[in-house]
What we know:
Layout: E1 2-5, H1 20-29, E2 32-36, H2 47-53, E3 56-58, H3 61-67, E4 70-72, H4 79-82, E5 90-93, H5 101-110, E6 113-116, H6 131-150, E7 158-160, E8 163-165, E9 169-173, H7 177-188, E10 192-196, H8 203-208, E11 212-213, H9 234-250, E12 253-256, H10 271-275, E13 282-285, E14 302-305, E15 308-311, H11 321-338, E16 340-341, E17 346-347, H12 354-359, E18 360-363, E19 366-367, H13 370-378
Parallel strand pairs: 1-2, 1-4, 2-3, 4-5, 5-6, 9-10, 9-12, 10-11, 12-13, 13-15
Antiparallel strand pairs: 6-18, 7-8, 14-15, 16-17, 18-19
Helix pairs in contact: 1-2, 1-11, 6-7, 6-11
Amino acid sequence: MLIFAPKEAKPEESRAPLVPDTVRRLVKLGAEVIVEAGIGDGPGYADDAYAEAGATVVQDRDEHLAKADVVLRLGPSPVEEIGKLRRGAIHVSYLDPFNRNDLLDALLAQGVSAICMEMIPRTTLAQKMDALSSQANLAGYVAVIIAAERLNMVFPMMMTPSGTLKPSRVFIIGCGVAGLQAIATAKRLGARVDAFDTRPVVEEQVHSLGAKFVKVDLGETGQTKDGYARALTDEQLALQREAMAKVIAQSDVVITTAQVFGRKAPVIVTEEMVRAMRPGSVVIDLAVETGGNVEGSRPGEEVDLNGVKLVGLPNLPGRVPTHASQMYAANLANLIEHFWDKEENVLKLNTEDEIMDGCLIIHEGEVRSEMIRKAREEA
Length: 379
């Protein structure tokens, strides 16, 4: 089976879908692995390293898109490249399926089977394939590092001959994978950390990391079967904002990570809340690419609002591309190994399996996910 991994289409994307160690794993399975020259430039892997791992390094992307049985990418393919895939091929990448009907239409028209990395089920068995979680983990870490660099104070308490410096106060909103890593990183740097989430079940995890959990009585909230936070009603959002306003005003750093899968991110921090913060404070909006949690934040920009820095930088995992590529490539390899038929040396799309049933969103000319079908009808 021929597996092809091209360079990422967006020049600003620094991550790669395969790294040499992952190539070795796939070759050991019995796959023929081909990569486009320069695929590892972002994370710092030379073409020779891929070749030594067993891959064939090529220059002609189009030729090998047309030949490949499986195409591995990180970001979605450009729509014009979908038409170059052979009918019956398997395409694996992020697909942004709730917003990219054009891409799904192209995959359907070409007769390609599409595995969507965003749709890997959140189960114990699938954890090793969960790219959303692996990348969110790094995003939480990077968010704190950026905040520490932008803040005009140090994070830890320091007792010096010149006096004692109080620790900075960091407020994390949303305690999923990114939020929990942000808490852990901020604590390692010595900050005083408060955290909030709509799911009471995460309170114990927050305490275990040494942070204080901010309790807000929102009535019935909870999480979906896949572990995502449920969308709040307008009344619940109003209660949440009111309760958080005091904590935000006391904080030196606010990091928001709240996203609702398949929907626009909720606005949690209003301009009024930001204006109540001390000038020099920093707000990091991890949800800026899906609508933003912070009123006034803009994708790709750092906005000054009354002396407070609103940071809306995209693709935070891409700021640590070596580890981000290692983790994403491992997610792909774990997925392929799980569904590899050793007798036939092929990737089997076993839809009876819960994991494949969840992430194989296009197969045999149909959109298989009811959730995505509904979203397409409503678009």
